[in-house]
Design brief:
This protein has about 290 residues and is an alpha/beta fold. Helix content is about 45%, strand content about 15%. It is built from twelve helices and twelve strands. The strands form three sheets. It has an eight-stranded parallel barrel with strand order 1-2-3-4-5-8-9-12, surrounded by four helices. A two-stranded antiparallel ribbon has the order 6-7. The longest helix is centred in the first third of the chain and has 24 residues. The radius of gyration is 26 Å and the shape is globular.
């Protein structure tokens, strides 16, 4: 259609066109102005590794679990102690206590030793999902040893799978040493079967060892269903209350989906305050965090 010369249009027609153009331009702006910002994600189902309150658990496991629930924690991970895998409690006993308190025992650290079969049976009784080894056999810091360990973990993973559990491994900082330029933790990742071996990444120890968790999330997406979430003083190489160290807690949570994270557990090994004062500070920090 040939363009009309607006100068020769009736005044009513010119006003109509101006109004239409204004409304059209406004329509383009309305979605942007009216669109609400994406709501920030809040942390939920905050978990705790019971090693954080290990002294209290050994002295009074039932009372300590009640206090942990009172803080607001919803998920638990146990740890091997002088009184067994559940601080002296029987598997069915800790399961009932958790149920009554509105918590869920998700995971437990055990030793791969002569009590392995017992640990496996106890884990199934508690109803937990994961059974985690936090140590390698003491055969040296070599790539060959880590490859052998990975192969052994695959076999343990098969046993756990038959029992309805997931086997996993938890790192410290020693796994990030190198053998002839190869980072030993990378050997575990390369030779463990992801369908059989869960990697529980202790984010604080990764940072303390001078490595980047985000790099691992990029290189091995989905490989880290479990986390130990902690803040660290990199100079003193000790855990501190959230917000006091050098770990990017918010940034890590923003990459939870990329990492494959399903559950995380607060773990603090040292305290500026008492154990319960520290975990209250940590819980409050996470509960207020938007990411």
């Amino acid at each position: 259609m040939r363009k009309q010369n607006q100068r020769f249009l009736p005044s009513g027609r010119r006003n109509f066109l101006k109004t239409s153009a204004f409304l059209a331009a406004g329509a383009l702006l309305i979605p942007k102005l009216g669109r609400s910002a994406t709501p920030a994600t809040r942390v939920k189902d905050i978990g705790i590794q019971l090693y954080t309150v290990r002294t209290e658990m050994l002295a009074d496991p039932v009372g300590t679990l009640k206090k942990v629930a009172g803080v607001g924690f919803k998920e638990l991970e146990s740890a091997r102690s002088d009184k067994g895998n559940y601080y002296g409690l029987k598997p069915k006993e800790i399961r009932k206590i958790c149920d009554d308190l509105g918590m869920r025992l998700r995971s437990g650290h055990i030793h791969v030793d002569n009590d392995w079969q017992k640990s496996l049976e106890e884990a199934t009784e508690t109803g937990q999902n994961y059974i985690i080894s936090a140590v390698l056999p003491s055969k040296g810091q070599t790539a060959d040893h880590y490859k052998e360990s990975a192969e052994a973990f695959n076999k343990l993973g098969e046993e756990c799978k038959k029992a309805g559990l997931h086997f996993g491994y938890h790192n410290h900082d020693s796994e990030f040493a190198a053998d002839n330029g190869t980072v030993l933790y990378d050997v575990l990742l390369k030779y463990t079967d992801p369908s059989l071996v869960t990697m529980e990444m202790d984010l604080g120890w990764v940072v303390a060892a001078g490595h980047d968790p985000f790099q691992y999330f990029n290189q091995y997406p989905g490989r880290f269903p479990l986390w130990h979430l902690k803040d660290m003083d990199k100079v003193q190489r000790r855990s501190v209350e959230f917000g006091q160290g050098k770990v990017d807690i918010k940034g890590l949570l923003q990459h939870a989906k990329q990492a494959g994270m399903k559950h995380f557990f607060l773990e603090q090994e040292e305290y500026a305050h008492s154990a319960f004062e520290s975990i209250q500070l940590d819980y409050d920090y996470l509960a207020k965090l938007n990411y």
